[in-house]
């Protein structure tokens, strides 16, 4: 079995050494965020400052990267979360992951701090630490233009250099947006990591694998989500759906519906601005929207960005959103966290607490504000620290829309309570994806499992979190998992009696899911209709990966990240949401329009095999084989 090879670089000394992942670790933790979390637990001490030289950042791929499997070119960055102090994993498209692998490494482990702005270069297994001072200060676009053309590139912008807590890192126009990866690289004086190589992927059962991916690509292309909606509208296609179900954050999550949402919807974007769609390497879905902006073609905004620079700040100006999205990408800032922090600043002004010169309904000041935030100018430096830090300084915790310190994504959980549970329990903070993305089963998909009922939400959340963890660990884009909602429901539509009956069955499926979670080790089969990911991993690596062990891998991953968070001092009290969501009904007087977190959390801990303090029980850790 060919196990992953990482390059460990001490940036303080410039020395490097190969780190060969053991067969045991490969089989147990596979790659991506799971293996990276295990290595962070093994190789770092508790309590270090995420922006100190002692901090470590792991940039890695999964076993599927560079194999040509569908949607498998993405790569991962794991590190101590700059916003939460817990675990961070941030996923990115672009060419870098594939090129790193072709250059001979499955991952890089970076520690220390370079003594001047630097560029890490990896070429066919060789490592060079080069002077990067001519690039320091440049935006992400210009930085990449100045680097060698055919290399895979991962760069930061001015926000990363200035340690903005939610600074992103990017490859091409794709971003590792969340949790502050750009700040960690900036703190190490690393402006760019570039890679080039020609190594081909080694595939355990090549012919079978190629047959498998041909069938899988067909399945993705034939599915209404991955073959129609995502290619046509991208994630932006969710905006009108979220608005229709009152789960679109509006006015800093005060309400969940905007009468002007359609002005900034995926449909409007497609009709009025779209040039073409595009996508990551080896992706048949191609969810990226290309739009025209000031005479040039750029990446269009995703659902989150449309929502947060649109209804959440009471704006319906699509051109402004396209521009702000582009500027965030130039400066290297996560659009979710910066826009959510801006919405919080606007509400502080509304309430007469603090005036940053930012007002709801007025996007005209935001371009200037983004530059000031990225450069930490004056009071804007507070916004660069994120919503949680601002609320600790100025007050307003009840409407500071974050969990654990990471700003919530663009789904209003009072009308999607399982999503609320997901936000609260997500290991990296208020993230929909790490949280299990129950909004897809409650408020923005074809199914709608009673969005305001806590019934079975603990079980569904655990299952979905585990599945998404596994998909990510292997190196697949999470959107591939959307093809497993049966096509039939899309054909019948959301109001058909069969769809409605399925919603009712899922609402009462808690017991069945608990049984399923306990029986996973018996599921020693693979199916194209369930998780083709598992069969692909088996055929590429030779690891006996089946549907059951694949979901267990996800469970192991989620528990590992929980253990990391506990080690860093996070606890059950941090599995929380702001009062606006748990105490203030979205519809006045209707108490079923809050997130009943206190009802769902104890059941969630139980299903996870954690004690009442949210600590994994010894038998859970043992069952998962975590040392
Ligand atoms: S679905 Fe979109 S984000 Fe995922 S790999 Fe394809 S193009 Fe990239």
Task: Describe the structure in your own words.
The protein is α+β, with helices and mostly antiparallel strands. The chain folds into 3 domains: 5-196, Aldehyde Ferredoxin Oxidoreductase,  A, domain 1, CATH 3.60.9.10; 235-395, Aldehyde Ferredoxin Oxidoreductase Protein, subunit A, domain 2, CATH 1.10.569.10; 413-623, Aldehyde Ferredoxin Oxidoreductase Protein, subunit A, domain 3 (Orthogonal Bundle). The chain has 27 helices and 17 strands. The protein has a 6-stranded mixed β-sheet with strand order 2-1-6-3-4-5, with helices on both faces. It has a 6-stranded mixed β-sheet with strand order 8-7-12-9-10-11, with helices on both faces. Strands 13-14-15 form a 3-stranded antiparallel β-sheet. A hairpin with a 6-residue loop joins β4 (75-80) and β5 (87-92). The radius of gyration is 22 Å and the shape is globular. The site of iron/sulfur cluster has 12 residues, from loops.
Keywords:
single chain; 627 residues; alpha+beta; Aldehyde Ferredoxin Oxidoreductase,  A, domain 1; Aldehyde Ferredoxin Oxidoreductase Protein, subunit A, domain 2; Aldehyde Ferredoxin Oxidoreductase Protein, subunit A, domain 3; six-stranded mixed sheet; 40% helix; binds iron/sulfur cluster
């Amino acid at each position: 079995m060919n196990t992953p090879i990482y390059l460990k670089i001490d940036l303080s000394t410039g020395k490097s050494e190969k780190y060969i992942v053991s067969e045991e670790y490969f089989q147990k933790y596979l790659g991506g965020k799971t293996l990276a979390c295990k290595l962070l637990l093994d190789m770092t001490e508790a309590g270090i400052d995420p922006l100190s030289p002692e901090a470590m950042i792991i940039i890695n791929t999964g076993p599927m990267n560079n194999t040509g499997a569908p949607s498998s070119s993405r790569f991962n960055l794991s590190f101590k979360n700059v916003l939460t102090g817990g675990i961070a994993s941030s996923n990115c498209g672009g060419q870098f992951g594939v090129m790193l692998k072709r250059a001979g490494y499955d991952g890089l482990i970076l520690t220390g701090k370079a003594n001047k702005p630097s560029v890490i270069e990896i070429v066919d297994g060789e490592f060079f630490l080069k002077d990067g001072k001519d690039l320091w200060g440049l935006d992400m676009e210009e930085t990449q233009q100045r680097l060698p053309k055919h290399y895979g590139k991962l760069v930061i912008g001015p926000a990363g250099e200035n340690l903005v807590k939610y600074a992103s890192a990017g490859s091409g126009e794709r971003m590792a947006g969340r949790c502050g990866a750009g700040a960690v690289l900036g703190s190490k004086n690393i402006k760019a990591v570039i890679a080039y190589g020609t190594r081909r992927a080694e595939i355990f059962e090549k012919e079978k694998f190629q047959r498998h991916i041909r069938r899988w690509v067909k399945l993705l292309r034939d599915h209404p989500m991955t073959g129609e909606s995502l290619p046509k509208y991208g994630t932006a296609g969710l905006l009108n759906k979220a608005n229709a179900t009152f789960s679109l954050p509006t006015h800093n999550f005060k309400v969940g519906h905007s009468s002007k949402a359609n002005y900034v919807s995926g449909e409007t974007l497609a009709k009025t601005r779209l040039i073409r769609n595009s996508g990551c390497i080896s992706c048949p879905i191609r969810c990226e929207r290309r739009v025209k902006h000031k005479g040039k073609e750029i990446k269009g905004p995703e659902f989150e960005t449309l929502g947060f620079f649109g209804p959440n700040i009471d704006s319906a100006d699509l051109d402004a959103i396209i521009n702000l999205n582009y500027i965030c990408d130039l400066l290297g800032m996560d659009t979710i966290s910066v826009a959510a922090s801006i919405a919080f600043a606007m509400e502080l002004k509304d309430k007469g607490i603090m005036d940053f010169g930012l007002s709801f309904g007025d996007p005209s000041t935001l371009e200037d504000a983004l530059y000031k935030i990225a450069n930490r100018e004056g009071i804007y430096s507070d916004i660069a620290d994120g919503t949680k830090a601002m609320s600790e300084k100025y007050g307003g915790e009840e409407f500071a829309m974050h969990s654990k310190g990471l700003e919530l994504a663009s789904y209003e959980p009072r009308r999607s309570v399982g999503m609320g549970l997901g936000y609260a329990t997500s290991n990296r903070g208020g993230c929909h994806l790490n949280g299990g993305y129950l909004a897809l089963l409650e408020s923005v998909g074809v199914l709608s499992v009673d969005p305001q009922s806590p019934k079975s939400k603990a079980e569904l959340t655990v299952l979905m979190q585990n599945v998404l963890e596994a998909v990510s660990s292997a190196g697949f884009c999470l959107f591939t998992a959307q093809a497993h909602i049966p096509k039939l429901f899309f054909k019948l539509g959301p109001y058909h009696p069969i769809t409605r009956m399925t919603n009712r069955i899922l609402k009462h499926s808690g017991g069945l899911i608990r049984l399923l979670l306990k029986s996973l080790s018996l599921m020693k089969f693979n199916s194209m209709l369930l998780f083709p990911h598992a069969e692909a991993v088996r055929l590429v690596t030779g690891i006996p990966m089946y549907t059951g062990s694949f979901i267990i891998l996800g469970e192991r991953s989620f528990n590992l990240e929980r253990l990391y968070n506990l080690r860093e001092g996070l606890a059950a009290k941090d599995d929380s949401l702001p009062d606006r969501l748990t105490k203030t009904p979205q519809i006045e007087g209707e108490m079923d329009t809050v997130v009943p977190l206190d009802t769902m959390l104890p059941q969630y801990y139980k299903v996870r095999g954690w004690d009442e303090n949210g600590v994994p029980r010894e038998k859970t850790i043992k069952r998962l084989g975590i040392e």
